[in-house]
């Protein structure tokens, strides 16, 4: 069950430019911007413009959009973190999701540990 009330999040205000963000890429389907609290030298988020709360809320109808987010993350990751990078999608409470607007974290610029805590 969803633990968060549905509706607009801070990311909608970033999409509408009501709130400023360090935007690094934008197209008709998605937006990428640097995370306000970076956990690595490179840490940005790729989000769909359409509000989908969690990855769990997607279906086979979203294949194209989900593939697009992955390919944008891939291109920006390759350009900004040539040594490699990590994609993270936190889903729901136990996944430590805090903003209920689907987002792909791209982290790089340092050696990552595994497994994550
Ligand atoms: P989650 O924990 O939901 O996977 O990640 C949400 C991410 O959004 C966090 O890494 C957090 O630092 C980032 N974030 C939250 N609010 C803002 C904001 O207003 N601007 C930016 N650029 N990032 C934000």
TrEMBL record:
Residues 10-117 form the HIT domain. Signal peptide: none annotated. GO terms for molecular function: catalytic activity. The active site is at residue 103. It comes from the Eukaryota. A motif (Histidine triad motif) lies at residues 101-105. This is Histidine triad nucleotide-binding protein 2, mitochondrial. The chain holds residues 47 to 163 of 163 of the full protein.
């Amino acid at each position: 069950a969803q633990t968060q009330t549905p509706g607009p999040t801070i990311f909608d205000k970033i999409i509408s430019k009501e709130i400023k963000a360090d935007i690094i890429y934008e197209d008709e389907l998605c937006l990428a911007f640097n995370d306000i609290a970076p956990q690595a030298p490179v840490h940005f988020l790729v989000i769909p413009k359409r509000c989908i709360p969690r990855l769990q809320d997607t279906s086979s109808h979203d294949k194209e959009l989900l593939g697009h987010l992955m390919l944008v993350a891939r291109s920006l990751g390759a350009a900004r973190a040539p040594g490699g990078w990590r994609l993270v999608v936190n889903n729901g409470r136990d996944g430590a999701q805090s903003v209920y607007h689907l987002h792909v974290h791209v982290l790089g610029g340092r050696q990552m540990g595994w497994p994550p805590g």
